[in-house]
Amino acid sequence: MPSKRVLILNHNQIQQKINRIAYQILEDNIDEQEVILAGIVSRGYRLALRLQKVLKKISHFKIRIIEVELNKDSSKLESSIDTPLKECENKVIILVDDVLNSGRTIAYGLGVFLNIPLKRLRSVVLIDRSHKLFPVSADFVGLELSTVLKEHVSVVLDENGEEDGVYLE
């Protein structure tokens, strides 16, 4: 039986969610001089790039972006970032991912920054599926979507010429 792909958010709706999240980030960090967006490879990083673009237009603070790579299948934290961790000390870090499902990816992403002093650590997801196995939640959410465990949510952001979209499969 072929799987059915249902469009949940189109390109314009995704951009509206990104704009709203950017304003929430601005409000949460109004007194800051610098904010670091830590995008989880690969769609989290693409989402972070889009947030950076909006934040540059509406905010006064410097926005740095870093790429966080995680081994999501490991039973322990295995990660790497493209910036020395020391450069993140005493900064506001905003961890960005596309979908929050079990919470493992966000939990591992948060773990990357736990051994350094920070001003604040927040998280952003475009879609929160609310199927958490880990006690984590996102601070900024584009859309909370109730799904059954067998369903899959896929986020497409400028991939292989395919139009942006969030799909339920």
Automatic annotation (TrEMBL):
<dbReference type="GO" id="GO:0016757">
    <property type="term" value="F:glycosyltransferase activity"/>
</dbReference>
<dbReference type="InterPro" id="IPR050137">
    <property type="entry name" value="PyrR_bifunctional"/>
</dbReference>
<dbReference type="InterPro" id="IPR000836">
    <property type="entry name" value="PRTase_dom"/>
</dbReference>
<protein>
    <submittedName>
        <fullName>Phosphoribosyltransferase</fullName>
    </submittedName>
</protein>
<feature type="domain" description="Phosphoribosyltransferase">
    <location>
        <begin position="8"/>
        <end position="154"/>
    </location>
</feature>
<keyword id="KW-0328">Glycosyltransferase</keyword>
<keyword id="KW-0808">Transferase</keyword>
<dbReference type="InterPro" id="IPR029057">
    <property type="entry name" value="PRTase-like"/>
</dbReference>
<dbReference type="Pfam" id="PF00156">
    <property type="entry name" value="Pribosyltran"/>
</dbReference>
